[in-house]
TrEMBL record:
Belongs to the PAPS reductase family. CysH subfamily. Catalyzes the formation of sulfite from adenosine 5'-phosphosulfate (APS) using thioredoxin as an electron donor. This is Adenosine 5'-phosphosulfate reductase. Gene3D superfamilies: HUPs. The lineage of its organism: Bacteria, Pseudomonadati, Pseudomonadota, Alphaproteobacteria, Hyphomicrobiales.
Length: 424
C-alpha cells in the first residue's frame, strides 16, 4: 500500500482556539460518539484529520463511525512487522466490510530495524525503543501532515486513561479527537452486535486488546482489558498516544506561552535541556552539550531516540562533523548580541556539511539578528524578548539588502575588495 503524497500543512486551529478546547469539551460532554466525530470532521478540522487504527479487538467500532461520516478519511495502520497473522487478515476484512477506501500501512525504516533490532528481539530487552522505531518514528511524518487525528481510546481501558476528554490539544499544537472516550466495555460490545460488525479472530480466544504478537497475551475474566499488553512490564502505552512530556495530552495546555519560533509560528518545543546525570543510552528529545556527546559518543550513537546537540561559544562543530546527521536539531548558543561565532557554526553546518535538519538559535536572540541568522542557515529561534516576539508575529523583520560577507552563491557582495570592483 503506497502512502499518499500530502503537502505538509500548518496547524490551523483558529476556530478551536477561539472556542477554547476546554469549552469545546464542555459542549460535547453529552454528545454521542458519532456527533463528536461528525463535528470534528465538518467544523473543527475539515480535510485535516486522520485516523491511526491498530485494527485490534475494538477497532471496528471507530472505523464503522468513520465509514458513516466519511469513508475516504485517511486511515493509517502501523504495520510493525510484529502483528498476528489474524490482525493482517482483519485489516482486509474490515476494509471490505466497511467500504474504507483510504487505508495505508506505515512501516518502520529498514535501516532503523537493521541497526537497532537486528535479531528481532528488541521488544524483549527494550520495548520502549522497539515501539519507538516501529511506531512513534514512522508515524511522525504522517501526523505532521494533519492538524489532528482521531483515536479509539476509552476511559475505561486503564486508570491512566480515566480522565480522557473528547478533545485534547497536544504540545505540538495538534488536536486529538477521542469520540469513544466515554464508551464502556459493554457499550463497545453492544455497538458491535447492533451493527453486525466482524470480530477480530482472536477476540473469542480471550484477547481483549490486541497489539503486536510478542507483547499481547490473553486476558483473564475481570482483568483490565489492556492487562494482556506488555504483561509483567511497567509499560502501558506504546508511545504514540503520549504527549512529548510523556503524559496524556492535557486539554489545559492551550494557554502555554511557546518560545520556539519555527516555520512562521510560535510552537511547542519538543526538546528539553540536558540535565546532569541523565543516561546517554535512554535520553530523548534532549539537546546534548557537545562535550557530553564526545565523552559518551558510543552510547549516544546507539540510542534510538531523537536527540539534539547543543553548541556553546568556543566549541567547534568540526569535532562532531561525522555525526551531525545523528541529530534532529542542533542548537547554537548566542550569549550576547555581539558574539558572532554562532553564525560561522551555522554556515558550516548548512553549507559545508549540507545538514538539513533544524538549526536553532538560542540565547539572546533579537529582532535585528534573525534575518542574518536565516541567511546563515538557522531555521528555528528561541525568542523571549517581547518586542522581538511581536515583530515576528507581525512579520516586521528588517530586510538585509547589502552583503559584505556573501552567503552561498546567490548573494552578490559589495565592498572595497579589489576583485569586487566593476570594470567600466
Ligand atoms: S508492541 Fe511490542 S513488538 Fe510491537 S513495537 Fe511495541 S515492543 Fe515492539
Amino acid at each position: 500500500m503506497a502512502l499518499p503524497k500530502l503537502a505538509p500543512v500548518q496547524p490551523a486551529h483558529d476556530k478551536l482556539r477561539a472556542l477554547g478546547i476546554v469549552a469545546l469539551n464542555g459542549m460535547f460532554d453529552d454528545m454521542d460518539a458519532l456527533g463528536v466525530l461528525r463535528y470534528a470532521i465538518s467544523d473543527v478540522l475539515p480535510d485535516d484529520l486522520a485516523i491511526v487504527s491498530s485494527f485490534g479487538a475494538d477497532s471496528a467500532v471507530l472505523l464503522h463511525l468513520v465509514a458513516q461520516v466519511d469513508p475516504s478519511m485517511p486511515v493509517y495502520f502501523l504495520e510493525t512487522g510484529k502483528h498476528f497473522r489474524e490482525t493482517l487478515d482483519y485489516v482486509e476484512t474490515l476494509k471490505k466490510h466497511l467500504g474504507l477506501i483510504n487505508v495505508h500501512a506505515i512501516r518502520p525504516a529498514v535501516a532503523d530495524v537493521k541497526r537497532f533490532d537486528p535479531n528481532g528481539d528488541l521488544w524483549e530487552t527494550d520495548p520502549d525503543s522497539c515501539c519507538h522505531i516501529r511506531k512513534t518514528e514512522p508515524l511522525e511524518p504522517i501526523t505532521e501532515q494533519f492538524g489532528g487525528w482521531v483515536t479509539g481510546r476509552k476511559r475505561f481501558q486503564t486508570k491512566e486513561r480515566g480522565v480522557l476528554p473528547h478533545f485534547e490539544l497536544t504540545s505540538d499544537d495538534r488536536i486529538k479527537v477521542n469520540p469513544l472516550a466515554y464508551f464502556t466495555d459493554a457499550d463497545v460490545n453492544q455497538y458491535k452486535i447492533d451493527h453486525g460488525l466482524p470480530e477480530h479472530p482472536l477476540f473469542a480466544k480471550g484477547y481483549k486488546s490486541i497489539g503486536c504478537a510478542p507483547c499481547t497475551s490473553v486476558v483473564a475474566e475481570g482483568e483490565d482489558p489492556r492487562a494482556g499488553r506488555w504483561r509483567g512490564l511497567n509499560k502501558k502505552e506504546c508511545g504514540i498516544h503520549f504527549d512529548f512530556n510523556g503524559a496524556i495530552a492535557s486539554p489545559m495546555t492551550a494557554a502555554t506561552r511557546h518560545t520556539l519560533w519555527k516555520n512562521g509560528a510560535f510552537i511547542a518545543d519538543p526538546f528539553h535541556e540536558w540535565t546532569e546525570g541523565s543516561d546517554p543510552a535512554t535520553a530523548s528529545y534532549t539537546h546534548v552539550p557537545l562535550a557530553v556527546f564526545l565523552a559518551n559518543k558510543a552510547a549516544f550513537l546507539a540510542n534510538p531516540h531523537p536527540l539534539g546537540l547543543l553548541v556553546s561559544p568556543g566549541e567547534s562543530i568540526e569535532d562532531v562533523e561525522a555525526d551531525v546527521g545523528r541529530f534532529a536539531s542542533i542548537a547554537i548558543k548566542f550569549p550576547g548580541f555581539t558574539d558572532g561565532r554562532g553564525y560561522s557554526t551555522a554556515r558550516l553546518l548548512s553549507q559545508r556539511y549540507q545538514y538539513a535538519n533544524e538549526i536553532r538559535a538560542i540565547g539572546d536572540v533579537l529582532q535585528d539578528q534573525i534575518p542574518l541568522m536565516r541567511r546563515c542557515g538557522f531555521t528555528a529561534f528561541v525568542v523571549t524578548h517581547e518586542p522581538t516576539r511581536q515583530a515576528l508575529i507581525e512579520d516586521r523583520l528588517p530586510e538585509v539588502a547589502l552583503f559584505y560577507q556573501p552567503v552561498g552563491t546567490a548573494e552578490v557582495p559589495v565592498g572595497t575588495r579589489p576583485f569586487l570592483r566593476r570594470v567600466h
